[in-house]
TrEMBL record:
Residues 8-119 form the Pirin N-terminal domain. It comes from the Eukaryota. This is Pirin N-terminal domain-containing protein. PANTHER family: QUERCETIN 2,3-DIOXYGENASE (PTHR43212). InterPro entries: Pirin (IPR012093), Pirin_N_dom (IPR003829), RmlC-like_jellyroll (IPR014710), RmlC_Cupin_sf (IPR011051). CDD domains: cupin_Yhhw_N. SUPFAM superfamilies: RmlC-like cupins. Pfam families: Pirin.
Length: 275
């Protein structure tokens, strides 16, 4: 395996007043030819939306789009008739397919919404638009890897609009989340692919709970989570907002994360097939 560390402050981003955002990949006015996508992942935006503001109705097609709510509330409306207010622990998946329109608003009077907005490329074009919601509690993630999103057809995936099962995605992407306590560690074994491929890509990012800091991310072990990532002969340490891209993994390989800091860390992990 080979690791490529990406510091939080090296992400793209902007402060629009109503929206404070970081971009892992090229998005909107931010462009970096080295970070256009990673496997099927095309967008990971860490967004903070001010109270009584949001994204007005806008169209999407041919993307799998999901939101991971970290704090606050996010109200969703779309052209399929779905109306939803999501809170911490909620996952909302929109399969854009042939085309949808939606809006996302923070209707709260005084509390900011903090969430991850994630886009993946679909494995098939021209799909019928669909919408799913799931909920994963902090207990589901406490010192264990909650398997949150998985490809349609993978064991445990259910295609009901609301369910306790895994969230379906029409893309070869698995999404995991954990709340990792200080001194605790977890080991993940890379999964078998539905199409029999052995080559794997992996990406890990630590949620930046410390706020919209555009300079060097705080890495004081007394104040933040410090997540050590180990795989094969490689290792790196992530502060809040930092990420690591991992290539060269194979089904059955192991990746370990350990919290070296004094604060619990919310960590998200993406596994997908090589292109």
């Amino acid at each position: 395996m080979q690791f490529r560390f990406r510091a939080s402050e090296d992400r793209g981003g902007a402060d629009h007043g109503w929206l404070k955002t970081f971009h892992t990949f090229s998005f909107a006015n931010y462009h970096d030819g080295e970070f256009e996508r990673f496997g099927a992942l095309r967008v990971i935006n860490e967004d903070r939306v001010a109270p009584r503001t949001g994204f007005p109705t806008h169209p999407h097609k041919e993307f799998e789009i999901f939101s991971y709510i970290i704090s606050g509330e996010l109200s969703h409306k779309d052209s399929m008739g779905n109306v939803e207010t999501m809170k911490r622990g909620d996952i909302q998946m929109t399969s854009g397919g042939t085309g949808i329109a939606h809006s996302e608003y923070n209707d709260h009077q005084n509390i900011q919404t903090h969430f991850l907005q994630i886009w993946a490329l679909p494995n098939k074009r021209g799909l019928k638009p669909t919408y799913y919601t799931r909920h994963f509690t902090d207990q589901d993630k406490q010192d264990k890897l909650a398997h949150v999103v998985a490809p349609v057809g993978y064991q445990g995936v259910t295609t009901e609009r609301e369910s306790k099962g895994l969230t379906p995605i029409n893309s070869p992407v698995h999404f995991f989340a954990t709340l990792l306590s200080p001194t605790k560690s977890l080991t993940h074994t890379l999964l078998s692919s539905l199409n029999g491929r052995q080559g794997k890509l992996f990406y890990i990012q630590v949620v930046q709970s410390s706020g919209f800091n555009t300079k060097s991310a705080a890495k004081d072990a007394q104040k933040t989570a410090l997540i050590k990532v180990t795989g094969g002969k490689e290792e790196t340490t992530l502060g809040e907002g930092d990420g690591v891209f991992i290539i060269g993994g194979k089904t059955g390989d192991e990746i370990t994360i350990e919290n070296l800091g004094k604060k619990a860390g919310e960590v998200v992990l993406f596994e997908m097939d090589e292109d």
